[in-house]
Amino acid sequence: MNGVALLAPLFLAFELWQLVMSERYVGIKQIARGAEPREMGPSEPVAFLWTASILVYGLWTVALLATPRARIYAIALIATTLVGYSFRRNSDLKRILVVLTFEGAVRVAILSPLTVAAWIHR
Known about the structure:
- Helix content is 75%, strand content 0%.
- The chain is mainly α.
- It has one domain (3-120).
């Protein structure tokens, strides 16, 4: 595997951070009190870091397509993104947390073996 795949632990940590953040902003407590997550979002620096990380993550996933041994992981991540996005776009607020949690779990399940494979075969 090339050096691009060696960044998998970084994005694995990012996925775990996203799970925590989605629970914080779209969590059960916010749903129970009827809060609108778009109105109570994170501070601007956190929102910028989050958005920039998502863009870098997307570029990294596309770059993984050039690595033959990591290509299947990249395809799985892209497919997860597309399916998750379509479900999120068509879900109400109460179901978005479930979709975000499931999508995050699938991404962690994809990135974990990629992390191991990348560091074993470096």
